[in-house]
């Protein structure tokens, strides 16, 4: 676009809704590019020229004027928190109608014909693991047993990822998680378990806990060398 | 707690609706505000964010967790808003742009008239921007994102993001100067 000869800023430009394709920068009468002047303003750079040049000062004033309008407008912004609850309810109405197919898992004895959806069973097993203070769970995959590469009815294999609190005795903690997961599978679901693989994906400092996941006070502050995958029970 | 997001996203991807609900509850306010700023309409913002969450639920099994859940959600909402803005086009004549939706609350009654007028004028000027300029400008000036993050969110180069923000500023400063 043409050079702007006066201190009047900005020029008529390409107008609102101008295309994005070409650079339509403007060189001020002092020789500076408008885009660079505004960038310096953003970065808070301490360029002596900017302080003394009337052309640059005029350009910066334009930007400040816009900033003031933005601040005024944002004072009137609606607080979104009060709409978020209703929105969450509407989203979940749709989500709960859309059942993910998921893997069906055999329940009960070999001769029975009872099945449970993997997501349902996983939810129960995660909840059981999280009864161990400070433990939070992520992925929980449950696979039917196999015989010669073919899924069979019978005990399932569980692979559970956990974030554990920074406490001594990690092996005991993993064992406790395993015990509770097995218990829930057996008692609550009637799902026989072949083994529970517990993978520690992270160790959380208690300082990072919030009210959703109450964590007991950690006693030790040493860092543990963790093997991923605590092996099979 | 950001680490929580990733745990919840993994669980939601495996079909845990409660985990997903926790994510929606946590991120809805910020995303509603973002969409409201991009679209200039609260009801359209609610539609955009609702659609974005439902689409996120369907796509969660593909969510690799390479980016943070919040970045991923931002991207989905921004794309939804871009499409909604594009379907509104063409609106090029400033005077033909309808009066933007007035904000519902103004903090100080003494400033009400001035504030309302400035907000209305800014809203009008914003609707005259191209959708791409508007989105980049909102992410930069109102959400305070870096050009790199804007580039990643919108799926363009950071130079392009810089260029769009600059052009948006030019259009807006012109409009606001003319109004004053």
Automatic annotation (TrEMBL), chain A:
Residue ranges of the region described as Disordered: 1-26
Low complexity: bias regions: 1-11
The protein, known as: Asp23/Gls24 family envelope stress response protein
Organism name: Streptomyces rochei (Streptomyces parvullus)
UniProtKB/TrEMBL annotation, chain B:
Any Pfam family: Sigma70_r4_2
Domain RNA polymerase sigma factor 70 region 4 type: from-to ranges: 121-172
Domain RNA polymerase sigma-70 region stretches: 23-89
InterPro entries (UniProt xref): RNA_pol_sigma-70-like (IPR039425), RNA_pol_sigma-70_dom (IPR014284), RNA_pol_sigma70_r2 (IPR007627), RNA_pol_sigma70_r4_t2 (IPR013249), RNA_pol_sigma_r2 (IPR013325), RNA_pol_sigma_r3/r4-like (IPR013324), WH-like_DNA-bd_sf (IPR036388)
Keyword Lyase: no
Residue intervals passing through the bilayer: none
Keyword presence, DNA-binding: yes
GO biological process: DNA-templated transcription initiation
Family listed: Belongs to the sigma-70 factor family. ECF subfamily.
Protein's recorded name: RNA polymerase sigma factor
Lineage start: Bacteria, Bacillati, Actinomycetota, Actinomycetes, Kitasatosporales
